[in-house]
Design a protein that fits this description.
9 strands, alpha+beta, single chain, seven-stranded mixed beta sheet, about 375 residues
């Protein structure tokens, strides 16, 4: 649901190959966005992001009325893998990048190096720098404060939330916190471990909410959901889907507790910001094959199993449970989407399903 002045494509300047033209266009857009920001006009999440990453000193936005989420996300992603403060941490240098540095980054993009090659090259060029201890301590204190703020925000009765997205993230986050509470009551973790894992959950939840707000902007202008078509049935990818899938099936390295350790996680083929569009492409190929039976959606809960790039996946769909409320229009939603690693589910695939080819890298499982 996008309503910014500039379209998302307008803000993606990497498609402009000439660096000088790209720089001039960037300055032109930035000047206009900064004028709107200064006058407190509406900015889309993508426009806010454009301003934030165009700036040198990110600390300027730490308590900004408009860009504080961007600052939070930027800081969180630096420290997410180790919230204890025991690692080496790096950030973008505050100085404005020179023409030569821009050319270096451009060449790196084109050569598609590993993450470690990226990091080492940028460190050697002084484009990213190691963060010093005092700044690390301040950043971790800031993140503790944001975790506490987010917890207080989510304590609101979910029925009082007017923002459907935050309502779904509140519900999902409370589930994770309840599961962690069980570990504490069973004495499988100590009190300080509990506090640390709780902080991991809250910070991940806050950042996932922010990420989902940007994803919603990629949907149709008047929609807060994305329609996927499967066997002539519309299936919605919307707030519930985002909260459930992102909280349970992404970024295991940023959280460590029994509930999340029992899940499977997406790697590579389904980056979360594009999950709906990749699924759309797969559903389109399945539709063209005409392999699904006519009565595929005859039940309330319908699950799709497929193999893509040698990995098995499970898509759960369900009629929205609120469909019977007065004035509600029934619709089917994406309930969950994850890799199949569970041994029982894999055994079920082998024993109860036939594997049928859709394309060279895509197969579908049909009940025998």
């Amino acid at each position: 649901m996008y309503s910014g002045h500039y379209s998302i494509n307008d803000l993606q300047l990497d498609t402009i190959k000439d660096i000088d033209i790209r720089e001039n266009r960037s300055k032109e857009i930035l000047a206009h966005l900064v004028d709107r920001w200064n006058s407190k006009q509406y900015l889309s999440e993508h426009e806010k992001e454009f301003i934030f990453f165009s700036a040198g000193n990110k600390d300027f936005f730490k308590n900004d009325y408009c860009l504080d989420y961007n600052y939070f996300s930027y800081t969180y992603l630096i420290y997410a893998m180790d919230l204890h403060g025991t690692s080496k941490y790096y950030k973008w240098s505050n100085h404005k990048k020179t023409v030569n540095e821009n050319y270096l980054i451009e060449n790196l993009r084109n050569s598609n190096p590993s993450r470690e090659v990226w990091r080492q090259t940028l460190i050697q060029a002084g484009i990213i720098i190691e963060i010093q201890k005092q700044e690390i301590d301040e950043a971790l204190a800031y993140l503790r404060e944001k975790a506490s703020e987010w917890e207080n925000n989510l304590k609101t009765n979910s029925e009082q939330f007017t923002d459907k997205l935050i309502k779904e993230f509140a519900s999902e986050t409370k589930t994770h916190l309840k599961e962690l509470e069980k570990e504490k009551k069973e004495n499988t973790i100590g009190y300080f471990q509990y506090l640390h894992k709780k902080k991991q959950i809250l910070l991940f939840s806050k950042n996932a909410y922010f990420t989902s707000k940007k994803i919603i902007e990629t949907f149709d202008v008047d929609k807060s959901y994305y329609i996927l078509h499967l066997k002539d049935v519309d299936v919605r990818f919307y707030e519930y889907s985002m909260a459930h899938i992102l909280m349970r099936h992404y970024s295991p390295a940023t959280r460590d507790y029994n509930f999340i350790n029992s899940k499977s996680f997406h790697i590579g083929d389904f980056p979360f910001n594009n999950i709906h569009t990749v699924l759309k492409t797969i559903f389109e190929q399945i539709n063209l094959s005409n392999i699904l039976p006519e009565n595929f959606f005859s039940k309330n809960v319908v699950n799709l199993r497929f193999e893509f790039n040698n990995q098995n996946y499970f898509v759960g769909t369900k009629i929205d449970p609120n469909q019977n409320e007065k004035g509600k229009v029934p619709f089917r939603r994406i309930e969950t989407f994850h890799i199949i690693e569970d041994q029982h589910m894999l055994k079920e695939l082998n024993n109860e399903f036939l594997k049928k080819i859709i394309a060279t890298n895509l197969y579908i499982y049909i009940k025998k």
